From TrEMBL:
<feature type="domain" description="Nudix hydrolase">
    <location>
        <begin position="1"/>
        <end position="126"/>
    </location>
</feature>
<comment type="similarity">
    <text>Belongs to the Nudix hydrolase family.</text>
</comment>
<dbReference type="InterPro" id="IPR020084">
    <property type="entry name" value="NUDIX_hydrolase_CS"/>
</dbReference>
<dbReference type="GO" id="GO:0016787">
    <property type="term" value="F:hydrolase activity"/>
</dbReference>
<dbReference type="InterPro" id="IPR020476">
    <property type="entry name" value="Nudix_hydrolase"/>
</dbReference>
<dbReference type="InterPro" id="IPR000086">
    <property type="entry name" value="NUDIX_hydrolase_dom"/>
</dbReference>
<dbReference type="InterPro" id="IPR015797">
    <property type="entry name" value="NUDIX_hydrolase-like_dom_sf"/>
</dbReference>
<protein>
    <recommendedName>
        <fullName>Nudix hydrolase domain-containing protein</fullName>
    </recommendedName>
</protein>
<keyword id="KW-0378">Hydrolase</keyword>
<dbReference type="Pfam" id="PF00293">
    <property type="entry name" value="NUDIX"/>
</dbReference>
C-alpha cells in the first residue's frame, strides 16, 4: 500500500505468529479456493487493515520461498492505493501489533528480529520503490 507521500505501509506480526514472529511485514495472505489473486488481494487488504483498494498501481515480480514449516510458496506482490483513514488501520487482533508507513531510506527497520540473510521482504519493497519511481510517484 502506498501513501499519498510515497511511503509504503508495514505492519508488525505478533510474537505468537508461527511464520516470521515479531517481524515487520506487508499485507498479505493466501488465495482461497475459487478466488482469483486480485480477489484475494482485495479481501486480505480489507481483513488486515479495514481499507478498500482503490487502484492497483503495479504488479511486482513473483517471489518463491520456503518457510520454516518446509512449505514452498510463490508470492505475488502488488503496489496499491487504498481508501480509508491512512493513519488508523484496523489491525487484525492477535495477528499484528503495530503499523508504520516507511520511506525508502527507513528500510533498515525491516531487518528487526530477522536473520541477517533474511532479506526477501527488503528486496520486494525495494522493487516496489523502484516501480514507484518508474510511475513518477516518488
Amino acid at each position: 500500500m502506498v501513501h499519498d507521500d510515497g511511503r509504503i505501509f508495514f505492519q508488525k506480526r505478533s510474537p505468537a505468529r508461527k511464520l516470521f514472529p515479531d517481524t515487520w511485514d506487508i499485507v498479505g495472505g493466501h488465495v482461497e479456493p475459487g478466488e482469483s489473486v486480485e480477489e484475494a488481494l482485495r479481501r486480505e487488504t480489507t481483513e488486515e487493515t479495514g481499507w478498500q483498494i482503490s487502484v492497483v498501481l503495479a504488479a511486482l515480480e513473483p517471489c518463491s520461498w520456503t518457510g520454516d514449516d518446509g512449505l514452498a510458496r510463490v508470492e505475488s506482490d502488488f503496489l496499491v492505493r487504498v481508501d480509508g483513514d491512512l493513519e488508523r488501520p484496523r489491525l487484525e487482533q492477535g495477528k499484528h501489533t503495530e503499523f508504520r508507513w516507511l520511506a525508502e531510506h527507513e528500510l533498515d527497520l525491516l531487518q528487526e528480529n530477522r536473520a541477517p540473510d533474511d532479506t526477501m521482504l527488503r528486496r520486494i519493497v525495494e522493487q516496489g520503490f523502484a516501480a514507484l519511481r518508474l510511475l513518477g510517484l516518488s
